[in-house]
Amino acid sequence: MIRIARVLLLLLLLLAMPGGAGLAAAQETKRLEPVVVTATKTETPAGELGASVSVVTEDELRAYQYATVEEALRRVPGVEVRRSGSLGKTSSITIRGANANQVQVLVDGVRVKSTTTGQAELADISPDLIERIEVIRGPQSTLYGADAIGGVINIITKKGRGPFAASVEQQAGSYDTYASRATLGGSWRLLDYSLAGSRLESNGQFRNDDSTQEALNGRLGLALPLDSRLDFTLRWNRSETGLPVKFLSTNFGPLPIVPVIDVNNRQSSETSVLGLSGRTRPVPWWESEVRLGRYENLLWFIDLPDPADSCPFGAPCEFPSRIRVERREAEWLNHLHVGTWSTSSVGLEYRHEEGDNRSSTPFAARGWTRSAFFQQQFRVLDRLFMSAGVRVEDNSIFGTSTTERGSLAYVVKAWGTRLRGGAGSGFRAPTFNEQFFPGFSDPTLKPEESFSWEAGVDQKLWENRLRLGLTYFQTSYENLIALVTTATFPFVRGVNAGRSRAAGIEWSVEADLLDTLTASVNYTYTDTETLATDRPFPREPRHRWNVALTWEPVRTLRLFAQVHAVTRQFESRAAGYNRGHTRVDIGGSWRLLERWRGVQSLDLTARVQNLLDEGYAEVRGFPALGINGLVGLRAAF
Q: Would you list the DSSP string of 426-449?
């Protein structure tokens, strides 16, 4: 804590250099309250929601020079991101102690989680063409079915607006890192369009630690009569990554802190996400929407034998595999509005999922899910906002599950106060790997079940220049699926670990100290326990801090500093704890040209991560990068 305080003091002194002292007295800052669609599946101001909501905007993605989506999510309260090594390596996310299998990730409403692992690979989602990222914390199974125990992350792509516009960006940095991006978009009569392409490559810090990611993203929209609209979205990504950490050897056990390098372990991944949606509101009281989605991922893994390290277990320590997963889904929503005080929503959904693993341990799996949900929202005197819903989901393997959720928010506008709270149930069905993977699966596994509740208060002060938030949350789990070690390949298997719990506090402070200087701090305390073993959840820190400062000393210059700190995390009984760390990032952008001939703007951008060059690993045995930076130019036309 002393070290964190010293870092914060240093950042404040840097941002308070001469140039800021002569700024004009603070004036009221007009901030538009974000409109969120993920929490209710209808456009709703965030202030009317009983759920805990955070929105990462397009302006934040651009201002902080995030190279990946995972970096943009680190600042969100209650969210923990873990990357297994350097840039491009596998990344997972937890919310309030709920693991990556229990967090639903969407792109424009389409699920992007693997049907085999049950996780969304954040490294395969490029930050291009994103309008905003909505993060809903707490159980959302009523609206999104299985795998939404901890919350939902919805990545919403940007649609074209106005006359034709384009941009190009080129960055270069340490570890032979290069990033290239290009976008274009606009609208013509009833048609709007946007397109983006990018390439990100890096050599990493070890031999065979390189990664390359290529992405293409597009969106096409058509406005129709009767307040109707059609939208088509496409996101394609291909990545090739070296996996330098050798995780199976003659010294099988906890991964060493200093890794043993594997020089020929490679992985390739190709992902496509397609979405087609149609919406109409022919009369004020009825709104209908149909959404079709398709997610497909092809994953290739190959590791040639290493002569210096034989396998003592009588099983293939190193083997090639090809895994293909696909999900097709369809949803029909209807919203019935009664004036401004009532909205009733009814939804029907169908999903078909496939997983095909061709390796030395092959298996194939298929399954479908049918579901229906109902949600009722009431708005009373523009002060009291209530919602409640129920979902019935029928799975071809596990049968029928029912989940419920209710929430409310009460606003005292004269005081700038909002009281909110909610409670709900959730469940997660075992993944295809947990059901069918030879040697790892257990067909008798039961689905995980949960019940969560939260209560919080938000306060605005100083003419909305100071914004405070405080939330208490608690979740209890039944049949939580955990991993135990075995003596045969693949040396672990999933079991129902019985009852578990998670509880904690989130608080946040955001202040406009000056018209050009904004500071924010958020803190999350998470206490978790698996009751059968009296152990905390693996890799979940108890304390988590995020600090950010942004400063615009002149209109053409924007600077920022960020601090992300976590305490130690329990890894396993054999490995013990992974130590905590504090990461400091700085950067900014400087506008070099504006409205010069055909160039609308030319910006110089820079971002330095891990400024203090701290040695740490977000996942034990997979060292993170030391100090590293990216510098580039971004031109808009």
A: EEEPPPHHHHHSTTT--TTPPPEE
- CA separation for the pair 597, 549 (Å, rounded): 34
Structure tokens at 199: 């390439």
With contact defined as beta carbons under 8 Å apart, do 366 and 353 qualify? yes
Type of residue found at 54: S
CATH of domain 48-636: 2.40.170.20
Buried-state track 488-503, b at ≥16 Cβ within 10 A, e below 16: ebbeebbbbbeebbbb
Phi-psi region of 523 (alpha: psi -120 to 50; beta: other; left: phi over 0): beta
Residue 448 corresponds to which tokens in the numbers above? 């995980």
d(CA 555, CA 603) in angstroms, rounded, equals 12
Name residue, tokens 């309260």. 77
Q: Which amino acid is at 161?
A: R
Q: Are 317 and 311 in contact (CB under 8 A)?
A: yes
Closest CA to 567 of 595, 588, 536, 594: 536
| Encoded tokens for 212 | 């390359």
- Strands 342-359, 151-157: pairing is unpaired
Report angle CA 6, 10, 12 to the nearest 5 degrees.
Answer: 115
Q: How far apart are CA 29 and CA 185, in angstroms?
A: 30
Of 401, 397, 393, residue with least CA distance to 430: 397
CA gap 389, 404 in Å, rounded: 6
Alpha-carbon distance of 463 to 468, in angstroms, equals 13
Tokens of residue 213, six digits: 């990611």
Q: Going by C-beta distance under 8 Å and a sequence separation of 6 or more, which residues neighbour residue 64?
A: 71, 72, 560, 562, 587, 607
HSE-CB at 592 with a 13 A cutoff on CA atoms is: 10
What are residue 91's phi and psi, to 5 degrees? -130, 140
Here the tokens at position 111 are: 């699920």
The residue with tokens 């995030």 is 66
> 467: which 2 tokens?
């914004």
pTM for the predicted model, two decimal places = 0.91
HEC profile of 451-468: EEEEEEEEEEECCCCEEE
Asked if residues 239 and 212 have their Cβ atoms less than 8 Å apart, the reply is: yes
- Helices (H), ranges, 375-484: 432-436
Average pLDDT per 10 consecutive residues for the chain, totaling 637 residues: 41 38 37 86 92 93 90 94 93 93 94 91 89 94 92 95 95 96 96 96 94 96 95 96 75 72 90 97 96 96 70 55 94 96 97 90 90 97 96 92 96 95 93 82 87 97 95 95 69 80 97 95 96 90 97 95 96 88 97 92 96 94 95 96
Q: Determine the distance from the C-alpha atom of residue 461 to the mean position of all C-alpha atoms in its chain, rounded to a whole number.
A: 30
Q: CA angle 165-166-167, nearest 5°? A: 140
Q: Which residues, 6+ apart, have CB-to-CB distance to 283 below 8 Å?
A: none
Look at strands 417-428 and 52-57 and give their pairing. unpaired
